[in-house]
Amino acid sequence: MGRQAKNKQDAPLPLELENMIDGKVTKKLHDRIKHETARARKQHQKQQPGKGRQSPAPAKNGKRKGAAEPVKAKKAKVVESEDEAEAESEDEQMADMDAPDGGWDNAPIESDSDNGLESMSEFSSAGSDASDDEESNAKKPMALLDSDSDSDAGSDAGGVESYDEFDSDADSDDEAVTFRDMERRSRRLDAEQAEDDELGELELAAAGAVVEGEREAFALPTAEEVAAEEDAPLDLSQVQMRIQEVIRVLNNFGALREDDRSRTDYMDQLQRDMCFYYGYNEYLMEKLLQLFTVNEAVEFFEANEIARPVTIRTNTLKTRRRDLAQALINRGVNLDPIGKWTKVGLTIFDSPVPVGATPEYMAGHYMIQAASSFLPVMALAPQENERVLDMSAAPGGKTTYCAALMKNTGLVVANDANREREKALVANIHRLGISNAVVCNYDGREFPKVMGGFDRVLLDAPCSGTGVISKDASVKTNKGPEDFSMLTNLQKELILSAIDSVNADSPTGGYIVYSTCSVTVDEDEAVVNYALSKRPNVKLVDAKLDFGRPGFTSFRGRSFHSSLSLTRRFYPHTHNMDGFFVAKFKKLSNKIQVEENQFIVPAGSGVKLKQKKKRRN
Questions:
Q1: More confident of the two residues 450 and 5
Q2: Active-site hit among 275, 402, 463, 517
């Protein structure tokens, strides 16, 4: 058998595929065909091992070359080298023959938009259709047949991978994408994206820097329009837009106001719109708007529409916070510590079971308690073996916290004027294992006549509840002037009774903590200032709370004692807890100076009076 001719080519592709390709071949397809062809040729050479040792071809003169054995061996080596050269030349010829015009660097990349071949998935499906022709299938490489069978399973991907996924503009650009300019096109796309981002930032900056004078001037509704809105209220979205416009004018009142309108007119309109939008009565809305700037007032009202996180307090008499957290996590509870300011609190984000029905809750390992209720007990800081009075104890969160801090030593008197609420108080005391508490049912104003001489007194006074609107939305509408007048009078009487119930001579105590879940000044700073004026034997001290806003020392023309800056205010929109107020007093003397040389000693305050014995005649 003679040697293979150098110009001999492999079997051509089937006619159907040649017509479909239309002169455009992907590099991946070309490499695959080339690899299959070379592998088939090598297998064929292995099947004919004597090919390299065959007799040489006849010379031009028709005579065969005769030579000795060594010469034949040498000739055999030459023939093998020539075969390798022939194989390399055949590969080069095939590559040159199959490569498109201009070389592979400039070869067009097949895409879905090409007319000759819409997608490589069609190439695969065409291969599947050609499977009926056994002769053409026999000529196909095995890899192509495998890809044809795979194309039936997923027609989107096709038998051969398309390069369109690397070029997002292949469908939009008319020019063919080549391997050489892919990097250039990628850089161009990055530059276009960066330009779009820059334009977007410029547009935002321009929108934020719009000259206020160029915006459409906002006009307050007339009296007739306001009266018409009472009969046919506006949509909430329209009211919200008007609230934003009024706030914008108030923030730049000198430049944006109407000439014939005063600031009071804008505030009245804002108050009406916010009452309608958030559902408050006008009296309460006016009191709350006086506490904040207009922007912060909106944040406060929005925070009241969102429920506060569920928090629990670890009962350190039975467990540690770390152990409790691990036990709840094992039950699928998603939790986190409340913050660095407390070592016993946990925030519950999600729980597959009710937090008030777990075995740990039933065993008294924790108490469901608002984070704001931790604050007055932390300010009071009761010590072991002290006598402590909780004047409004129900439902028992603060009472049991005091007992835990005292490690069940001393005495905690838990009083509440509402007998029905005391049921929950007693139940929680038993569940948490409190053994140093005594429960009583008195009006707090009866102290210290009932009992006095305490080392510390905690008064969480009854209040309007303006700090817990997120829990009780009825506060928005059911609190009027008469309610605030009644509550403030009650709070003033209770705080005087709490001060008189403390023994100033206590070696470790003599402290009173006054707190409310209200944010109004009438129930907070005004009551504390009243107590300072009526009981000059007390002073305000630092509550040792590391966060919170200082109390007001002046408010809308009213001046308070300068020490009121030691009190602390907490808001839902800034501290993510219920609105709260905390003030801490230190009692300096059990005697109350009325005039220059006159003193009053409240009965039951703990002071021991010496009585002179009458002499018998």
A1: 450
A2: 517
pLDDT computed for residue 348 by the predictor:
96
Q: How far is CA 369 from the centre of its chain?
A: 23
Q: In this structure, are strands 456-460 and 558-559 parallel, antiparallel, or unpaired?
A: unpaired
Please count the other Cβ atoms lying within 10 Å of the Cβ belonging to residue 14: 20
How far apart are alpha carbons 347 and 345 in whole angstroms?
Answer: 7
User: What pLDDT shows up at residue 34?
Assistant: 74
- Among 224, 274, 214, smallest CA distance to 244 is for 274
Residue 146 predicted with pLDDT over 70: no
Return the number of other C-beta atoms located less than 10 Å from residue 486's C-beta.
Answer: 12
CB 592 within 8 A of CB 535: yes
CA dist 255 to 212, 218, 259, 589, Å?
Answer: 8, 12, 10, 57
* pLDDT over 50 (residue 492): yes
Residue 316 near residue 365 (C-beta atoms within 8 A): no
Active site residue 517: yes
Contact present, 324 and 360 (Cβ < 8 Å) = yes
Cα–Cα distance for residue pair 404/436, rounded to 1 Å: 10
pLDDT tens figures, 445-454: 999 999 999 9
Sign of CA dihedral 314, 316, 321, 325: negative
Q: Using DSSP, state whether 254 is helix, strand or coil.
A: helix
Contact (CB, 8 A) for 161 and 28: yes
Residue 152 CA to residue 139 CA, distance in Å, equals 21
362-395 per-position pLDDT tens digit: 999 999 999 999 999 999 999 999 999 999 999 9
Burial 275-308, CB ≥16 within 10 A → b, else e: bbbbebeeebbebbbebbebeebbebbebbeeeb
In this structure, the strands spanning 538-541 and 580-587 are antiparallel
Give the DSSP per-residue string, 309-346. Answer: PEEEEE-TTT--HHHHHHHHHHTT-EEEE--TT-SSEE
